[in-house]
């Protein structure tokens, strides 16, 4: 009897949680359907889409979020679609990529990725400090820009003792600027005369999150998506060494008004430093390289990843309030934008310097 009583509440909670996701997922699905239908109209009228369904889903989501704040009952499903479903899409993408591409990229590119992250962090911290941002805020902005956005901010914040208001400001701006990057970065293909391979490297080096690399590269080409995801994964793996480095630097940082207690000496676990979906991506890529995933299964898996990505982009748009820019402050806005500009410049310099075609 006692055992039954213990199990029932848990089962009910799981069922209620699953049910609570339906309104938000349904809203994202409606936006996805509208975006896909709009792309179909473009293809029928012009012969090809000028704006992909993936981008349309983001724009429609942002428009809806700006005009209307979704009721709390939608939030669980929207959050699930924006995070978990997109992570599943990243994992599925691994089935289309052979790890032979890593070997083909050569040690020069791998070293260049590491160098870009280091230069990006150093330049960003210098810019932020020059603009008068506190040391810990500068580090959060630098790591968010140079590595992987919110994930890097969340991983570094505890080891440097960052204040909640600084964490919130850094994450809020990352959410907005991340979407702007997804929408604007493809312009570098015609403006800078980049090949699909070059653009994939640029996206992998500059876009904040692994899922957002999909959003920025899928409209360009499959090659850009594969290269961008690969470069981004190497960049994300830099998070572990960076967190360890800042944990050693943290005791030397100046104390700031409002800080309570000592800097945390704890370090994030393995799942924080190497997210599960990256491991899943690498496992599927390994299976594909070993021939364990047949060719006939690759196309359906890639298509499913595409559908989940569009659905997740709708959720991402619904989570962005463009008015947040006015709340994070002019100095933070300028610091993050200038840091990102430096990162893009360094990335393009790497591409040209290594002669990537």
TrEMBL record:
Kindly give the membrane topology term recorded for this protein: Multi-pass membrane protein
Q: Where does this chain mainly localize?
A: membrane
Entry keyword set: Cell membrane, Membrane, Transmembrane, Transmembrane helix
The record's annotation in Pfam families points to:
Cons_hypoth698
- The transmembrane residues are 21-41, 47-64, 85-103, 109-131, 138-161, 167-189, 201-222, 234-253, 273-294, 300-320, 332-351
Q: Which InterPro entries match?
A: UPF0324_pro (IPR018383)
**Localization in the cell:** Cell membrane
- What domain of life? Bacteria
Coiled coil ranges (UniProt) are none
- Membership in a protein family: Belongs to the UPF0324 family.
Its recorded name reads Sulfate exporter family transporter
Which taxonomic lineage is given here? Bacteria, Pseudomonadati, Pseudomonadota, Alphaproteobacteria, Hyphomicrobiales
